[in-house]
Amino acid sequence: MIQQVVLITLNSSSTFPDIIAISETKLFGDKHTVVNIKGYSFIHKNSLTIAGGAGLHIKSELMFRERPDINLNGDDVEDLWVELFSPFKESIIVDTIYFYPNNSVNESSRNLEKYYHKIK
Fold first, then answer.
1. Across-strand partners of 98?
2. At residue 7, what are phi and psi to the nearest 5 degrees?
3. Could you tell me the pTM of the whole model?
4. How many CA atoms lie within 13 A of 115 on its CB side?
């Protein structure tokens, strides 16, 4: 179902986004092959449950590296961070995060604030 939503979005646009972030991918094992989109690299962090997970589709021509050093590493969150490189600008940090439903918005916000200093 995720693949269908992404493809509908891409087909209805005259330009393709550089990055597509997905939370709650529900991917585990090698199931990630079902969400490949032509012209994009797909990286993901498997879910520890039947829900959750995080994934990024990044245009193939973009240079990037995964940043596991920024991961939240919480028991109730699944996240994926990358650094995008450009020859003309400073690098950019991009993330996608799945917070488990039992998290409060305030608690999730406090957890994110703890990690902002790592990406400056």
1. 78
2. -65, -40
3. 0.74
4. 18
For 8-48, what is each residue's pLDDT tens digit? 455 555 578 889 888 877 777 665 556 678 899 988 887 77
What topology is assigned to 2-119 in CATH? Deoxyribonuclease I; Chain A (3.60.10)
3-state secondary structure at position 78: strand
Q: Is 45 left (phi over 0), alpha (psi -120 to 50) or beta?
A: beta
Distance CA(90)–CA(104), nearest Å, equals 33
> Which residue, 84, 81, 9, is CA-closest to 43?
81
φ, ψ for residue 112, nearest 5 deg = -65, -40
Closest to 3 in 3D by CA, of 22, 29, 30: 22
Query: DSSP 3-state assignment of 86?
Result: coil
CA distance 106 to 44: 26
Q: Which residues of 38-50 are buried (b: 16+ CB within 10 A; e: fewer)?
A: eebebebbbbeee
The alpha carbon of 57 is separated from its chain's Cα centroid by a whole number of angstroms, namely: 8
- The domain locations on the chain are 2-119
